[in-house]
Task: structure prediction
Amino acid sequence: MRLGFGFKLTFKTKNIFVLLLKLLLFFNLLLFGFLIENFSRLLMIIQVLVLVFGLVLLVKGADWLVDGASVLAKKNNVSDLAIGLTIVAFGTSAPELVVNSIASAGGSPDIVFGNVIGSNNFNLFIILGIAGLIVPLSVQSSTVWKEIPFSLFAAIVLLVLANNLFSDNAASLSWVDGIILLALFTIFLYYVFTQLKSDPSADSVPQKDYSNKKIWGFILFGLAGLVIGGKLVVDNAVAMAQSLGVSEKIIGLTIIAAGTSLPELATSVVASLRKNNDIAIGNIIGSNIFNIFLILGVSSLISPLEYKIDFNTDIYILLGGTAFLFIAMFTGKRKSLDRWEASILLLTYLAYTVYLISKEI
Result:
């Protein structure tokens, strides 16, 4: 037998060639069998990696957008107060807002509610717990008597509206509820404005100087990171829930909630290390109010959100944690979250996580 290039295939060579082909086929079959057998595992690893990549894009996208927009506003003589109230405040809430907007438009209400309620619980129990362990957090009277009660009020409003306690309609957030939430958000924003106006140094924006090209680069890449990252997070969260055989609710309450809370985690931990206690607590309380009034308000305007009453337990946890934070301001050192109280917050979240996992097993 003769092959191309004048090579003559002898009988012995032919047998070796056939043997090699058989071995190659055998190993291909083994590899194919391995891939089939471990396909779900490999797919899960890919989904987790893409989800993490999406979360990184979300956080960095928000960071880039805030950087670019803040410098652009400053170049146009916009005050630090206005920048802090709009751009910076939006930046820390942008991951939740983008994820929930995409989830709402895509018909995934469990991710919408799971992300907001889960983020609020993660903020309160984990982030404040960690910050309070680093250093006891002393706060101003306005935080004790206004911001903390306002966050408690926000959680109660969510419980009432989502369960339609004053009507016979099915549990949901309608566009009417969305308007109510956004109206309350406007009231809170006005309160923040009056607070900052009386103390402008409380929210000064760090000075940076970029070229116009760099400014618009940050803004465009930031927006792209938010949109692409949000899409990756929502799509892979739904896929992971289907692959694991768990609800979208548990994915939203845990993985997505923790991921979208990374800006708050970084801000509060750094603030506590620098002994900026008001920022450490104010960042969390403000974020929790933003999440309920702004994020859920916008989400329900995009599409009505069906609400599962199972989420009531998670809201009760949020209400209990917020009430505990208020009481903690009067136990031990007044107007302060002591280390032992921060430890209780962390242990409570650990028990809550075990409870969530046990319900899915």
The first strand starts at residue 137 and ends at 138. The chain has twelve helices and four strands.
